[in-house]
Amino acid sequence: MIETKRMIVEPTPEQAAAKAADIFKSIVLETLRQRDVCHLALSGGTTPRSMYHHLANRALGDNVPWSKVEVYFGDERDVPQDDVESNFGMAQKVLLDNTPIDWSRVHAMRADAKDIDSAAREYEATIRHLVPAGPEGIPQFDLVMLGMGGDGHVASLFPHTEILAETQRLVAACHVPVLGRNRMTFSFPLINAARNILLLVTGDDKAEVIERVFKHGDRELPAARVDPRHGTMHVVLDTAAARLV
Ligand code: 6PG
């Protein structure tokens, strides 16, 4: 597959979330026209959450064959699933509880495990077992959903952290000094092996980072290192976030 990157700008955050939901749905339906299962990874964050609302509340939620979707998480915080900070908990409440998902196909990251490194290795083993490998032998997700923080982080790949240089592990635990917390996250090799990456960013406060990422390719920003080698990157912005590109 020829690598492509497309950027779509919508007038408002609401319209950007709705557009991202449309793209999400079309990727799932296209995948299921070719294969029996759609393997996708969800993201945390308030912007992805607004897209989940659309998926859950609109007709999209009805005619997406959720029982054929295998759900993973691109990252997770070191909290229990019922904690307000949990990415799993947020996705469950906003999206998954409102769809006919097959819960045996939902794979939560246990970043609150006592031994978070073993939990990360187990999660990677699950992915390697369930997600078919792509051209480079790395499990190839049909879709990886990403938001972007104000510092240019995606998933839990934060600037100036060791995990950015990881080339072997697909899922790893990492300490985030700026937060003083541990996280579990996909690494770049796994993210960039995906068939589709959907990055949703809105808000004027992210405009300068979006400019550094997409106009200057500033690789100090993790978002600038998202680059699917055999896939398509769909970047959905609102006008405010896109005002400098
Ligand atoms: C997390 C997310 C993270 C998020 C961005 C965007 O665990 O926090 O996975 O990568 O997507 O921080 O968050 P906002 O949309 O809330 O700015």
What would your notes on this structure say?
This protein is an alpha/beta fold and 245 residues long. It has a single domain, classed as Rossmann fold. The chain contains seven helices and nine strands. A six-stranded parallel beta sheet has the order 1-9-8-5-2-3, with helices on one face. The protein starts with a strand and ends in a 7-residue tail after the last strand.
Task: Give the arrangement of secondary structure elements.
Elements: E1 4-10, H1 13-34, E2 38-42, H2 46-57, H3 60-63, E3 69-73, E4 75-77, H4 87-94, H5 116-130, E5 143-146, E6 171-176, E7 181-186, H6 188-191, E8 196-201, H7 207-214, E9 232-238
Parallel strand pairs: 1-9, 2-3, 2-5, 5-8, 8-9
Antiparallel strand pairs: 4-7, 6-7
Helix pairs in contact: 1-2
6-phosphogluconic acid (6PG) binds at residues 43-48, 75, 77, 87, 147-149, 153-156.
Widest sheet, order of strands: 1-9-8-5-2-3
Note the run of SSEs as H and E: EHEHHEEHHEEEHEHE
The number of distinct structural domains comes to 1
Largest sheet: 6 strands, parallel
| Number of E-type strands | 9
Kindly name the structural category: alpha/beta
Rg (CA only): 16 Å
CATH architecture: 3-Layer(aba) Sandwich
Low-confidence stretches: none
Number of helices: 7
* Beta-strand percentage range: 15-25%
The CATH topology comes to Rossmann fold
Bound molecules: 6-phosphogluconic acid
Q: What does the overall shape look like?
A: globular
Terminal Cα span = 27 Å
> What's the CATH C level?
Alpha Beta
pLDDT average, as an integer? 96
Tags for this entry?
about 240 residues; alpha/beta; Rossmann fold; six-stranded parallel sheet; three-stranded antiparallel sheet; 7 helices; about 20% strand; globular; binds 6-phosphogluconic acid
